[in-house]
Here is the input.
Amino acid sequence: RLARGALPLPEVLRHGAQIAEALDAAHRRGVVHRDLKPANVMLTRSGVKLLDFGLARLAAESAEAGADLPTMTMGAGRPLTEEGTVRGTYPYMAPEQVEGAEADARADIFALGAVLYEMATGKRAFDGKSAASVMAAVLRAEPEPLSKVQPVAPPALDHVVSRCLAKDPEERWKSAKDVAVGLRWIAEAGSQAGVAAPLARRRRSRERLAWGIAGALALAALGLGAAWLRQSQPEPLVTRSLITLPPDLTTGELTGWAISPDGRAVAMALFREGTRQLFVRLLDSLDTRALRGTESAREPFFSPDGEWIGYFQGDRLEKIPARGGAPLTIVRELRSCWIAGASWSEDGTIVFACNPEGLWRVSASGGVPEKVRVETQEDLVFFGPQLLPDRRVVLVTVRPLAMAGSHGREANEVVAVDIDTGALKPLVAGDWHAFLSPGYLMFQTPEDALMVAALDVDRLRLTGQPLAALGEERVHAYVVSRNGVLVYDAPGLDLGVAGELIWIGRDGEEAPVGIPPAIFDTLRIAPDGQRIAVGIEEDRGRPPEMHLVDLARGAVIPLPNPPGADVNPIWSPDGSLLAFTTWSGSNGSLFRLRLGAGSPELLLEDPERTLVAEDWSPDGRTLLLEVHPAAGGNADLFTLTMEGEPRLQRLLETPAHEETARFSPDGRFVAFTSDQSGRVEVYLAPYPEMDRRWQVSLTGGVHPRWAPDGGEILYREGQKILAASVSTEGAVSIGRPTTVAEGDFAGAWDTRGDAWDIAPDGRLLMVRMPDRREHDMVLVTNWHVEVADLLGTGKKR
Here is the structure.
C-alpha cells in the first residue's frame, strides 16, 4: 500500500491504532517483536494483522549474543529481514538496538512511530544511502516534523509520533496501549485534535486576502480583521457525566478508591457476592475489570506512571499491573497495625500509614519498611498520605491518638510532613485531602462539604481562604487526579439515608413495623419478641444512639446513652438487661444497662483494646466479645464472665480476623466469621473448645444469625439473606445455602451489615432502603479550570 504513497488520515489513525493494540497484546504477554516494519503489517478485510514474530523474544530472556547485522535491501527498495542473520531492520530500529543494547517493549514503540510516520507521509522517518547513514540518522537525526511533510496532519498526531520516536526510551510512551488510545482519541475528536499548522497558515492567508479586499472598500475593516485573526487558545471544557458500575458490584464503604495521576483509570475495592476485590475502570471504556488475585484487597493506590496499583492484602503490601497480571509482594509481613492509606513517589518510594506507629516508607521494588520519624510532641494517627509531585513532602490527615476511635471528625487536621527531616507543618482543619496541580489543596469538612484552597507548595501554606468547591452539594468520598479529573459519589449514595423497618416472612411477604423511617444501625430483637434495641443516627455524621422500639405501642423511646454512644446493644436472655459497646476515644468500652433502672454501668474498659459485645449465652452467665487492638488490626474472640467480678478470657485467637459471633440456642456451638481463606466466610465451631470448625457459607458471608430452633444459620451475602440447614446432633452436617430474602436492605452496600435480626417467630427484621442510583459516581473532567475560576487564580470563562 505504501508504494502508492501516504495513507489518508482516517486510515493512518485506524490502522495505526490496530497495530498499537496488536503490540500491546504481545507486550502484555511478555513478548517483544523486535522487527516491526511495514513489510510485517498486513492490511486485510478484517483489519490489520501484525505478523512475523521470527525475531521476537520473551522480555525475561537475556539478549542474544553477537553483533546485529544490517538488513539487506531487496526488490522494489523494500527492507526485508535476511533470515537467520539479523535482529531488526535499521530504518525502524530504536537507537538502543542500533547500539547493540537489549531491546524491550519501548523499542517496539519506537518502530511503531517510524511506521506511523511513513503511513502519514509516504516517507521513512530515517533514510539514507547506506546502512551506516541510516544508523547515524536513527542515532542522531530528528525526522522532519510530520506536519511539515504532511500539511493535513493535526498537531496531536505529530505529538503522538514524535514521542514514539524519542531517542531516550524513558521519554517514549509507556505502553503501546497509550499510543492506541491517543490515535483513537484523535480520530474521535475531529476538530478538537487541532488544525495542522501549515493548513492553518494557508487559511489565515486566505482570510487576510479577503479582509484586504474588504479594506479597499472600508479601511476600518482592516483593524477588525486583524483583531478577528488574533485567536487565543480555548480553555479546556469542564464536563460532567455519570459512571455506572455493573449491578452485581457494590461499593462497600466508598473509601477504597484511587485514581491514576493522569486521570485515565480508577481503581476501586468493590464487593461481588460478598467478596471484596480490586476492580479497574478505564475512563475511556465502559468496562469495569476485576484484577485476579486481589481478593480481600484494600486501600489501592497508583504508581506515578499509572502502570501499577499498590494495595494491602492481609498483612502484606503488594502491587499488580493496572492492566492485569500476577501480583508481586513488596512487603511480606507488616507489623500488626491499622493501615490507613499509601502513596507512591516518582523516585520509587512508597509511604504508608501504619497506626499507631505512624508513617513508614519502603521501596516499591521491595525491602524492609523504615519508620518516618515525625517531629511532634503529640501522639498522632495518620490517614491518607499523599506525596507531592517532585517533593519529599507528604500531605496527611492527622488526629490525636486519644481520639483515634471516636466517631466525629472535628479534631482532624491536614498537615505536611517532610519525610526526610520529619518536620510537620499544619495546613488546615479538615480531612480526606487531595492535591490538585498546579497548586490546590482539596479537603472535606466534618459535614462532608468539599473545600478547595490555593496551596503554595514551596512554602507549604495556604494562600487564601478555602471555598466550597461544589456549593451546597455534599460528598461522601472522592478522588482527584493531578491533571484535574474528579470522581465522587453521587448524592444518591449518601450513607446517611433513612430506611424503613420491615418484617419479612419466610414466605417472602413483607410488612412494615410501623415506626417512622430513620438511619438505623445495629438491631437486636428482645427474647420476648415485643421490643427492639436499635442504634439510630439522629444527625448525619454523628454516632448512633441507643433507642428502644416498643412494638405493641409503635413507640420509639430514647434510652440513656453514655457520651459518644455508637452502640451495639445485646439482650440478656431474660430481657431485663442490655450490654453494649460505646466508642469514646481510641478504644471501645463495655457497658450494661438495666432497663428502667437509671444510667448505664461501666462493665469493662481496656486502653489497649476495643471490646465489642456480640452475644449473651443462653444461661446468662457469659458475654461473647470480639476484641480489637485499639489502633486497629485483626480481631479475636473472647468471653466475659458475668457472675461475680467480670473476667475476660480468650476464646479463639488466630492470625485471621474473627468477629460477629453468635451462640446457638442451646449454647453448644458458636457461629462466627473469619477471613482465614482470604475471603470472609461463616463458620461453625463447638463451644467452648473451638478446636474444630465447619464452613457454612460457600461464596462469602457476614453477620450470621441462628434460627430460633437452632436448625439453620442465616447470614448476609451482599444484598441477599441466605440460610443453611445445620444438624449438631451426633456428626455435624451443614446443608447447601439457599436464598430466603433479597433486596435493597441497609448493610448490603455500606458498613451497617448488622442492621438485621431474626424474631422468635422466625420472621426477619430488615431495613428497606429507598430507591437510589447506588452505583452512580460523578465524573468531572478539567476540574482544575473550575477550581481556578472559583479561587480567582485563573481566567474567567
